[in-house]
């Protein structure tokens, strides 16, 4: 069996220990649960669950990523993964490409072109759930203006401007097709102010954790990107490589509205923004676990094509390794 199990730890009284080749999970007034490490694909920890140090070591040794989320909406999330592998040659090629203006611009253009192509596929898949999805893409990228602009962009700053404009137009288009009671008008975050934005932010954070695991397993430096500037404390390469995956998150999230979740599954306050309730969180992660195994493959023209999210991340890594060959 492949390592696709999603483990969510979201109770304050949870204690997690290593028990040979399994995690032992203890909670008050409940018998212990055992989760074999070889089945795990991702661990998500909310708040203050107590996780032993040897558990983190065991996860790192097996390249199992973890996402740490705050118990309340105002805190920062974190991605935790293994240390860098010994592939120093690939990592050196990454740094050489990032330091070459021509190479960096070329790779950044490819990242952004892949995201625009993903928007197109996502719009087709959203036709059953978003009222005007068929018009969103044609309005957004009429006459391939954005694609032409990417090819002519003289620097990273201009590319980021194009990306920001395209994303804003995408969400503005989606907002006109999402039912009004979801109160989604535009993209907002830190903290999100409505249920759709809460789900989008959570989804982007989760795929970031998975991508970090793939990057570290390959031996690349997660902090050195091409489209996103290298800033202390930011995983720029993770942000680069999840850009083409964000539209698939949008597809997954919008398919949950009404089918799995309703506005009653969220609470909102000024300090924490909008967050899932405990029951809503359980239903979300059930659906997300299924989506991880049947992730929308937006690179495939077939409307129902799926792959596992792990395979999608590995495909992005394969693209980057091939792109970096000439700098080895």
Outline the structure in words.
It contains 11 helices and 12 strands. By secondary structure, the chain is an alpha/beta fold. The protein folds into 2 domains: 60 residues, Ribosomal Protein L15, Chain: K, domain 2, CATH 3.100.10.20; 240 residues, Four Helix Bundle (Hemerythrin (Met), subunit A), CATH 1.20.120. It has a 4-stranded mixed beta sheet with strand order 1-5-7-8, with helices on one face. The protein starts with a strand and ends with a helix. 38% of the residues are buried. The mean pLDDT is 87.
Quick summary:
By secondary structure, the protein is of the alpha/beta class. It contains 11 helices and 12 strands.
Helix and strand content put the structural class at alpha/beta
As residue ranges, the low-confidence spans are none
Determine the fraction of residues in helical runs and give it as a percent range. 40-55%
Q: List the strand order in the largest sheet.
A: 1-5-7-8
By CATH, the topology of the largest domain is Four Helix Bundle (Hemerythrin (Met), subunit A)
Overall outline:
globular
Can you write the helix and strand succession as a string?
Answer: EEEEEEHEEHHHHHHHHEEHEEH
Within CATH, the superfamily of the largest domain carries the name: CRISPR-associated endonuclease Cas1, C-terminal domain
Using the coordinates above, name the CATH class of the largest domain: Mainly Alpha
How many strand segments? 12
The fraction of residues in strands falls at 5-15%
CATH architecture of the largest domain, by name, is Up-down Bundle
* Radius of gyration from the alpha-carbon trace, in angstroms: 20 Å
The residue-averaged pLDDT reads 87
**Total helical segments:** 11
The separation of the N and C termini measures 35 Å
Query: How many independent structural domains?
Result: 2
- Major β-sheet profile: 4 strands, mixed
Subunit structure: Homodimer, forms a heterotetramer with a Cas2 homodimer.
GO biological process, one term: maintenance of CRISPR repeat elements
Cofactor: Mg(2+); Mn(2+)
EC number: 3.1.-.-
């Amino acid at each position: 069996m492949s390592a696709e199990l999603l483990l969510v730890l979201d109770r304050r009284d949870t204690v997690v220990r290593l028990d040979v080749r399994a995690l032992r999970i203890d909670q008050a007034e409940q018998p212990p649960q055992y989760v074999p490490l070889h089945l795990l694909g991702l661990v998500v920890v909310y708040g203050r669950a107590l996780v032993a140090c040897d558990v983190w070591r065991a996860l790192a040794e097996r390249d199992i990523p973890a996402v740490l989320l705050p118990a309340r909406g105002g805190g920062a999330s974190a991605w935790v993964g293994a240390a860098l592998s010994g592939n120093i040659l690939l990592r050196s090629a990454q740094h050489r490409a990032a330091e070459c203006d021509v190479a960096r611009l070329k790779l950044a253009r490819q990242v952004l072109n892949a995201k625009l192509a993903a928007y197109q596929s996502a719009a087709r898949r959203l036709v059953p759930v978003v009222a005007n999805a068929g018009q969103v893409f044609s309005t957004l990228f009429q006459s391939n203006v954005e694609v032409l602009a990417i090819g002519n962009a003289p620097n990273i700053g201009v590319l980021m401007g194009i990306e920001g404009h395209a994303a804003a137009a995408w969400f503005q288009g989606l907002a006109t097709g999402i039912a009004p009671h979801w109160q989604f008008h535009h993209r907002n975050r830190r903290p999100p102010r409505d249920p759709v934005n809460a789900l989008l932010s959570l989804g982007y954070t989760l795929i970031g954790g998975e991508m970090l695991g793939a990057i570290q397993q390959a031996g690349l430096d997660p902090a050195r990107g091409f489209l996103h500037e290298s800033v202390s404390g930011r995983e720029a390469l993770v942000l680069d490589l999840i850009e083409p995956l964000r539209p698939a998150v949008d597809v997954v999230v919008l398919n949950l509205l009404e089918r799995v979740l309703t506005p009653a599954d969220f609470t909102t306050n000024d300090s924490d923004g909008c967050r899932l309730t405990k029951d809503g969180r359980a239903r979300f992660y059930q659906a997300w676990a299924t989506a991880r195994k049947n992730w929308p493959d937006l690179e495939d023209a077939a409307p129902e094509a799926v792959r596992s999210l792990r395979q999608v991340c590995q495909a992005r890594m394969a693209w980057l390794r091939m792109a970096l060959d000439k700098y080895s």
